[in-house]
Design a protein that fits this description.
By secondary structure, the protein is an all-alpha fold. The protein has helices spanning 18-33, 47-56, 65-116. It is built from three helices and no strands.
Length: 121
């Protein structure tokens, strides 16, 4: 079946409306445009057409209702945890740079003092 042909006949057991297909296709197309990998056997170039083809071939998984809300909460929690970890890493890098800067001052000062001390004769 060519995707370009209209109307697209859908299996009513998986979708409750055509609008859900539009939402699923739009979300997957956005993922593809942001760099997600498309299925390897697609012959289409446009992200929206690839997304529709992936759905029609049964390669996309989606959740609705309560499961969708739980998945959104979990994704939000993971995203917040990732942001928190990134902030901690950045702060650790800043502290590390400050310590290195402070230590370099002491090392330079001790090297100067060692150069000024008279050596054994």
């Amino acid at each position: 079946m060519e995707i370009i042909e209209l109307p697209i006949h859908l299996d009513d057991t998986t979708l409750d409306s055509r609008y859900r297909l539009v939402v699923i296709g739009a979300q997957r197309a956005r993922q593809l445009m942001e760099g997600a990998r498309a299925s390897e056997h697609t012959k289409y170039a446009k992200a929206t057409t690839v997304a529709l083809e992936e759905y029609l071939m049964g390669e996309l998984r989606f959740v609705t209702g309560k499961d969708a809300r739980l998945a959104q909460r979990e994704a939000r929690r993971k995203r917040e945890e990732l942001m928190r970890r990134r902030a901690l890493l950045e702060r650790e890098e800043e502290i590390s740079a400050e310590i290195k800067k402070d230590l370099s001052v002491y090392i330079d000062a001790s090297a100067k003092r060692a150069a000024e001390l008279p050596g054994p004769t």
